[in-house]
Backbone:
């Protein structure tokens, strides 16, 4: 990843991972529970997983948008694109719904 925001994004994602380690672990556990669940429980287990992913995505959007609000429009657009790309690479389960 290249660009003027690489360092700040790396720090933000490291902080997110540290502060939300429980959420990340819970999402991994929920996906594993879904994979192991019997057919009659699969829909519920997958819904539990999606709820955790949505929570993580919302937290990342708040982080991204909060910082982007401090930038001019062109810089904010560049930052958001780099942020989204970094999330999809480092923690892809939370990056699918970033726009």
Residues:
């Amino acid at each position: 990843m290249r660009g003027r925001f690489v360092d700040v994004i790396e720090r933000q994602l490291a902080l997110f991972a540290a502060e939300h380690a429980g959420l990340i672990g819970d999402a991994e556990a929920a996906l594993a529970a879904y994979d192991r669940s019997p057919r009659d429980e699969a829909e519920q287990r997958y819904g539990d997983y999606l709820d955790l992913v949505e929570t993580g995505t919302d937290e990342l959007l708040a982080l991204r948008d909060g910082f982007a609000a401090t930038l001019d429009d062109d810089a904010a657009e560049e930052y958001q694109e780099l942020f989204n790309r970094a999330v999809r690479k480092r923690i892809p389960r939370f990056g699918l719904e970033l726009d």
In short: The longest helix spans residues 39-68. The two ends are 18 Å apart (CA to CA). The helical segments are 6-19, 21-36, 39-68, 73-90. The CA atoms of residues 86 and 92 lie 9 Å apart.
